[in-house]
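In the design runs reported in the main text, the only information available to the sequence generator was the tokenized backbone. The following block is the verbatim input for one such run; it is reproduced so that readers can re-run the procedure and compare outputs position by position.
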């Protein structure tokens, strides 16, 4: 891949989008009552990926000044000048427009509108306002990032269902602890950039306590698919093991003296956790182990 193309790919946050697509596919297959046509799977995946990439690119544009202050983000293409703000804006517009049209004409109107609202919620409401306005930014703004399972569900059903919202709830409850662990690891950078993340505004001990509490909430939400008969024993066994790891890291972080090291490990495990949970619910759905 040429350097120019690689820079545009970085703007899309491909790892984040890939995880979003995994949860989208889970929503699609759990919502489907019959075989999903290949063209529907492809158009839904492509449309949601493009609109997610557009929102990520807009996030790069909005955050380019604060990105320059942080070690984690100071080498991003807009900070280094490898791409201009104008180029990024055009790229975001093209992605968003193409994605919306693909979903509107190739999937259904509901999925197109919901995906647009999620993109606006992340790129405008969270990145432009909430991120700099309140320490609860990631709690409120996390709803946008939790939407992909619902988008996958509506792509194949054309309507909203409580089970789809349950998948959203799992990601919504998971997001704060996941991101606060990263904030602890990068505490001094967020403080230097004057971004009111919870560790900066309320202190490290309070944040560590909230990571434990939100991890407990995530554990409770993760058991609901089994409780309502949406998944079976394979999912239950898998999620119990994943939950043990989640709580183990949260408690270890709560009582750790070396916050920086364990915070990064907690953040990385949270990614493994969400990936494993949605992989398990998909496998359980198709292997029918009950």
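Verbatim output:
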């Amino acid at each position: 891949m040429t350097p120019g193309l690689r820079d545009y790919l970085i703007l899309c946050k491909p790892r984040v989008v890939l995880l979003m697509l995994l949860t989208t596919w889970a929503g699609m297959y759990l919502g489907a009552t019959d075989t999903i046509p290949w063209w529907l799977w492809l158009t839904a995946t492509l449309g949601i990926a493009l609109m997610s990439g557009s929102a990520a690119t807009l996030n790069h544009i909005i955050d380019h000044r604060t990105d320059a202050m942080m070690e984690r983000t100071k080498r991003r293409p807009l900070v280094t000048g490898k791409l201009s703000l104008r180029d990024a804006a055009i790229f975001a517009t093209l992605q968003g427009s193409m994605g919306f049209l693909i979903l509107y004409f190739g999937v259904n109107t509901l999925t197109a509108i919901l995906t647009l609202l999620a993109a606006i919620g992340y790129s405008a409401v969270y990145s432009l306002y909430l991120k700099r306005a309140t320490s609860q930014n990631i709690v409120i703004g996390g709803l946008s990032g939790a939407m992909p399972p619902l988008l996958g569900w509506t792509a194949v059903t054309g309507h909203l269902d409580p089970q789809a919202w349950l998948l959203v709830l799992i990601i919504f409850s998971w997001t704060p602890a996941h991101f606060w662990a990263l904030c602890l690891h990068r505490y001094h950078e967020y403080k230097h950039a004057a971004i009111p993340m919870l560790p900066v505004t309320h202190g490290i001990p309070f944040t560590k306590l909230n990571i434990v509490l939100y991890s407990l909430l995530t554990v409770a939400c993760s058991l609901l698919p089994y409780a309502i008969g949406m998944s079976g024993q394979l999912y239950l066994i898998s999620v119990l093991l994943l939950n043990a790891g989640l709580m183990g890291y949260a408690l270890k972080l709560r009582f750790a003296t070396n916050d920086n090291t364990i915070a990064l490990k907690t953040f990385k495990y949270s990614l493994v956790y969400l990936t494993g949970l949605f992989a398990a619910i998909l496998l359980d759905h198709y292997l029918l182990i009950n």
